[in-house]
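Q: What structure does this chain adopt?
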Amino acid sequence: MNHLPKLLLILATLAWGGCNQGNIDMDNSSDQDLIVNIDELSYNMKAGQYTRIQLDKGVHKLVLQDEEGKVLEEESFRVYEGGLLNLGKNNYLIWVDLYGDPELRKSKLEEDWLDIEGDSYFGQFERLDPSKIYVERKWDYGLDDAFPDDLLGWQMTQERWIIKRKLFRESEFIEAYKSLVKE
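A:
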């Protein structure tokens, strides 16, 4: 009995399901299509496109070009674990939140008001430097990960709280925050 077709189907399914695996959130939040060359690999990134790629630890060379091939940026960056390639050099922030006893918010979080385009948001937030094309990961949830409502099944520490961080494009943060306030 020939099991090769079944084996090929399983391998193809695994490969397709693993397409979003990786350690680098590569995000073109700009309004122009870009050609991204990292080492020997080339990616065509449409305006607003996001993808996750895998890069080994170490130094990588990036050449960013417009559609016509004009070099917009050329630099090297070091990957330790993974992070964000901010191709459009736009605004991102990390929303820090506490899971557990809400009474601990004041002692465990550094909450303050953040102003964005005339609106104010209260919580603990960290802005990423938009001039840096690569930022090493310091968040728990990336751009395509949901910020969970709760953490069912997590191992509670003796203090019965845990802090988690989520990376947002600034515009998506505003939507998420306003949605949460409505609830």
